[in-house]
Structure to design on (161 residues):
């Protein structure tokens, strides 16, 4: 049976300070992971809010169109809706674009559809360390107005895509 040689106190002195290097590296890795989790979580949160605002703005614009509103009325209602969701057009980091009729997608040039695109840019928390100082998100929604008639009534419907 073979025994490992015991370490002498002199060999321990050669390793002094090594734990500081490993601890520093480990802390840097943990901070990088925490920063990535924080920035990614906030990105998902803001993207969901942005999509909700775009959906609401498209619906609001479609209801205004259904009530006989014109282009400026639809634009005002759509922008008011995004503002009520926390995304005010004209702020440095927000851009709200409303198209009636839509300029792209399935309902291009359909005068019964309203299209809204919202873009939001914000500063990152930790991703700036790796060169990503800002993130930009965009969400779009299209609402289509239609109707059905029978002998006694006419029913409107609004569908969002």
């Amino acid at each position: 049976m073979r025994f490992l040689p015991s370490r002498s106190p002199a060999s321990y002195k050669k390793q002094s300070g090594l734990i500081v290097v490993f601890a520093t590296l480990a802390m840097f890795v943990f901070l990088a992971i925490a920063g990535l989790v924080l920035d990614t979580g906030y990105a998902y949160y803001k993207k969901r809010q942005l999509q909700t605002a775009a959906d609401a703005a498209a619906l609001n614009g479609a209801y205004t169109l259904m009530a006989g509103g014109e282009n400026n009325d639809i634009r005002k209602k759509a922008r008011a809706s995004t503002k009520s969701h926390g995304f005010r057009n004209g702020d440095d980091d927000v851009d709200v674009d409303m198209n009636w009729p839509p300029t792209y997608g399935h309902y291009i040039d359909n005068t019964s559809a309203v299209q809204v695109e919202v873009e939001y840019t914000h500063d990152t928390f930790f991703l700036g360390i790796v060169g990503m100082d800002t993130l930009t998100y965009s969400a779009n929604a299209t609402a289509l107005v239609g109707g059905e008639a029978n002998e006694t009534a006419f029913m409107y419907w609004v569908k969002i895509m």
About this structure: The chain has three helices and four strands. Residues 32 and 129 are 9 Å apart (CA to CA). The radius of gyration is 28 Å.
